[in-house]
Amino acid sequence: MPSTTPRAHAPPPPPPPAIRNNPAPAVNINPPSVPSVAPPDALMVELLVYNGAPFKDHWAYWVCSRHDKQVGVLIHATGDVRNGFRFQAKRSYDFRYTTNPPIKRVPLQWVSAQFFDENAMLNWGDPKDDYMPVGPFEISAHRVNPPREDNEFRGRQGKFTS
Asked: According to the UniProt entry, which residue ranges have a biased composition of type Low complexity (predicted)?
């Protein structure tokens, strides 16, 4: 005969964590005052801002060709927190053919052409992802160490996948 004594039930499981669908807040940048007309023999260096939602925005340097403002070299760190990041130059990058345009282009400074090897920087018109710097400007940017892998992130991932 079944027992008529009420049994204690386990409490319901906690609700799942809230999922945020709103993007990371935009960063307000006060751009420097840069003349719109180029000094003789100079190239414009810009800061590109990409929407990184739901994470922080991604930033890159942009140096455009003196002949076409939509073509240039995009200089940034590529990778992820699990494996680390490394320097990358996207040569002869053309904004007309990208599916991921920046949300903001911030002119930073006109820089003398002596700090660039424009033909090599643009890979003689042939698009290419490159990991070695060319010319003094890129060599200078390459000296800044990109973020390394995050061992703490790896540890957290291991806890979730075990």
From this structure: 19-31
